[in-house]
Amino acid sequence: MSFVDNLYNCFTTVCKNAGKSKRSVEDIVRFFRLRVEVEEDHMRGLEKLANFSMMIQEGTILNAVNALKNDCYSRAFQAKTFIESINTDIITVLNNIQKSQSDAIRPYYMEAQKIQRIKDGYLDEIQNCKKKYWKSCQECEKITNALEEVLNQKEREKLLSKLAIEKHNLDENLMNYQDSVESYKKFKAGVKDAMTPVMNVYELQEKERLESIKDSLRKLVVYDTSYIRNIQYDLDTLAHYMESINPYSDIKLMIDESQSEFGEYPDIDFESYNGEHPAFKNFSSTLITIPVPLQEKWAEVPILGSIREMYESNLEITAVKVFKGKDLNSQDFQQFNTLVKDSIGRKAWLNVLSTKPSKLIGRGLEFLAELMISLLNECERVSDADIVKQVLKYINTFTDDSGETLLKFLKVHSIWGKLEIWEKVITQHIQEEIEAREVYKIFDSIEVQESVIKNIVFCQLGSIASHMCNFQVEKMYAGEILSKHACKYNLSAEDIDTLMATVDPTQKRPDPAEIITSVQRGVPDWLKSITTPPPKRSQSKPLGKFIFDT
């Protein structure tokens, strides 16, 4: 069974099949390239793990950690070898076969096309001769039928004369028709010999393509097997190092080094402070009263604004590192935690953030999230709702290259479960928005004032409801807080339904009898662009007053 014996007269089918076979090879090449991309990503991840810096520098665990990193490096090297093998021995080979076959088949394809055109010429000639022959037969038949019906001698003579002419044409067309059929039969008898070289090349290339695919898959199995066995060997080595960890030895080493480094507790005596001011001469435990500056001396004490500027200067250094994607060390985090322990530092940090671009590069968003978590820890400790309210503005402001926001890192913080924080945030949001819009100054009518305030409250509660959903606040508690403030400002039943549906579509609104439903619907044009205004900076006061008030 071969192409020559079975398919020499089916060149079109053979040609289409060759095209499908070529596309199959191309698909396999694309598959292997995708496999290479996957392995390259895996290799880069392993290299990153192998280069990971750890603080462990001594003890038996150090050998285990180094073995773990070496295992990652070895896996990365195995992946690199696997990638090179696929590229060199599979993808390149298949591409070369495709190219060489394409160049080799071209003259044979042209020869086959030439034979096809000759065949088409014969078939067209046969059809034309057949058409003329049949037409002559029809004319002769028509005249013969007329002769049988006509009795007039003159008309019969005319028909006989015409029949003689048509008979001559019929003989000529018959001869042409028979010659064309005989010529085609002779051509057809020689087609197999003419198509033999073409069919042999097509069959040879088809076998070569199938064999190359088979060899490629065999190679993949071999490379995969080698890859897995090498990894298994590395795992056995890694297990040996894991078992060599000796906690007792490491603890003893730490104790011995600590004793030699620090020794016994040193003796420390109290040392009095000696300053230039008379009140601070030999300042010791016997002098516990600190003189307070007189009222007329407050102007000489640095004002609160200068303290805030000092905070902002220190925090700006940290922010620059974060937004440039540089790593923060433990000293940076320690300094930040110290600065945000008081309200001045927390406000200064938010002021610094307000001047920064929204896009962070590298791991900047991760570092910023760590700092914001520290900020929220302090806010939770002292119940600082004002700072939390401002943090909400930055939840979706800052993004990294992949589009992630701070919400991903901050939504699990425990502060969002503090209902008293949400109570304060909602109250401040509403009051600040009413004051910012100067409702009581712009509108004289109490009815209009109430209508505008209801619209403001509805907008602010809707914004808070969205935040509550993002932070996964318990639906029941979120609904209670929102309905409480909605009822406080007499929002309509429809507005309350809308707010409740935001946090929980299945939650029912409070008793309609407790809600005033005569609220004017619609939002004024000037109110459609409502956004939460930035918090106003508090007025600076002298440092002395700040110190002794606290």
From TrEMBL:
Q: Key word Amino-acid biosynthesis present in the record?
A: no
Q: Which GO terms describe its cellular component?
A: cytoplasm; organelle; plasma membrane
Q: Where in the cell is it found?
A: Cytoplasm, Cytoskeleton
Q: What is its main location?
A: cytoplasm
What's this protein's name? Answer: F-BAR domain-containing protein
Q: Which of UniProt's keywords are assigned here?
A: Coiled coil, Cytoplasm, Cytoskeleton, Phosphoprotein
Residues in coiled coil: 137-180
Q: Which residues form the F-BAR domain?
A: 1-250
